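Retry 2 of 3 after timeout on previous attempt. Resubmitting structure tokens to design endpoint.
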């Protein structure tokens, strides 16, 4: 059931829910996301950042996710998160990734348009959808640094950007940040509605780890169709591993603590699928 984000996100947009997108770092996290999606009958997106790709390689993650998808009865997408260059986007495309993000948000508007359009033009003939970003998600996670300048997406610019690039989904800045929040985030949810009025493609919420569930639900209600989680999955996996090692410091079988980490990630993913409202929606958009 390895598929693309195209139909899944359009179905989410029509149905008023969002598809959860979860960053995976190893085999256990891939298994956890698949198991959570299976239990809740939900479509799901697994994604890797450039830093994660450098750790093991596009082919390793493709093989893991493809194996999971072949065992699954729910639709699974393998997505490149925050693709940092045209070259990396094309490498992921050739490796078999079924959804590509190109992040030109640190560039000027004009440069972002040129880069995002180039990736979309390259991927679309093969039916692979492309996500782009306009406006900056702040904070730092992995090797992603969004910066603090001009974090919000201008609705009029979003409309112009989508028309000029032909991208299939758009990540927008509404006050979220990557990494761990030091204070409770305050999101400009009204901006989501304003962008939704002008932009027809599905909208994407980045930097959602640590955002209160009620705020995420409000964003979904106003038009967010894809919701990204990364940092909290890492925290969940590490929690499971640490608990096992604390209880038995002499344990040496990685399967023992790997399974504990996997279970914590599964519980977390299930909770966020329910927040997104995609439970029971596996059959939508196939």
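Retry 2 succeeded. Sequence:
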């Amino acid at each position: 059931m390895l598929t693309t984000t195209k139909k899944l996100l359009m179905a989410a947009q029509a149905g008023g829910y969002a598809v959860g997108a979860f960053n995976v770092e190893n085999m256990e996290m891939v298994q956890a996301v698949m198991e959570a999606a299976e239990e809740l009958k939900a479509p799901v997106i697994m994604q890797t950042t450039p830093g994660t790709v450098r750790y093991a390689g596009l082919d390793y993650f493709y093989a893991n996710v493809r194996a999971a998808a072949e065992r699954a009865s729910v639709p699974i997408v393998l997505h490149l998160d925050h693709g940092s260059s045209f070259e990396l986007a094309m490498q992921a495309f050739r490796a078999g990734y079924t959804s590509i993000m190109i992040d030109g948000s640190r560039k000027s508007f004009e440069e972002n348009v040129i880069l995002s359009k180039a990736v979309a033009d390259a991927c679309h003939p093969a039916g692979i959808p492309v996500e782009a970003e306009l406006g900056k998600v702040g904070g730092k996670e992995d090797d992603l640094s969004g910066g603090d300048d001009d974090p919000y997406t201008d609705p009029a610019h979003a409309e112009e950007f989508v028309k000029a690039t032909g991208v299939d989904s758009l990540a927008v800045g509404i006050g979220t940040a990557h990494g761990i929040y030091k204070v409770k985030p305050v999101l400009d949810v009204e901006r989501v509605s304003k962008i939704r009025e002008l932009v027809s493609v599905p909208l994407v919420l980045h930097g959602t780890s640590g955002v209160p569930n009620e705020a995420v639900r409000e964003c979904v209600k106003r038009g967010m169709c894809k919701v990204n989680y990364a940092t909290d999955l890492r925290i969940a996996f590490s929690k499971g591993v640490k608990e096992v090692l604390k209880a038995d410091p002499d344990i040496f079988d990685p399967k023992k603590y790997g399974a504990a980490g996997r279970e914590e990630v599964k519980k977390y993913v299930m909770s966020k699928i329910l927040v997104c409202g995609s439970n029971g929606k596996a059959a939508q958009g196939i």
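Attempt log closed. The longest strand covers residues 76-83.
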